[in-house]
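Problem 12. The chain below contains 155 residues. Write out its predicted structure in token notation.
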Amino acid sequence: MADAETPRPRKRAVEWLLEGESVRTNRHLARFAAAPYLPRLLADPASSALLSRSSRSLRKEIIEAYGMLEQVEATLHGAAPAAIVDLCCGSGFLSLALANEFPAAAVLMFDLDTRIRVRHDASHPNLRFEVADIMADGFGARRGALRREAGGQRG
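Solution.
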């Protein structure tokens, strides 16, 4: 008679990725794997959909996000930003990384696609998603107002 086993939860793409060789060979994936906020992201139900996409897609998202993060850090020269705006944010993986790397900054994400489901913004008080056409008249003024509003919430 076989022992009754408790079914193990199905691994998400992120767990497979973290166990793979590429985490040791790609600096962007390595930085993601070593991020102090990773355990919180892995446990966050609001981030689960983002971390469960196909392995190839997730790998691409992480590499692109952490490559851009390097560029942001190089541009800032150690300064702490008050606000960061991510235009055409797509799934928002870069915004999520920025919100975690710069927890004192308001991270504002904009995209025109109304089908995008950005749930992870609810788990990060410094992250906000807006559906917006960045080419529309008045967008610059609207972005400025949102930035002031987000900055004002931080005191």
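Discussion. The chain has a mean pLDDT of 85. Students who got a different answer should revisit the alignment rule from Section 12.3.
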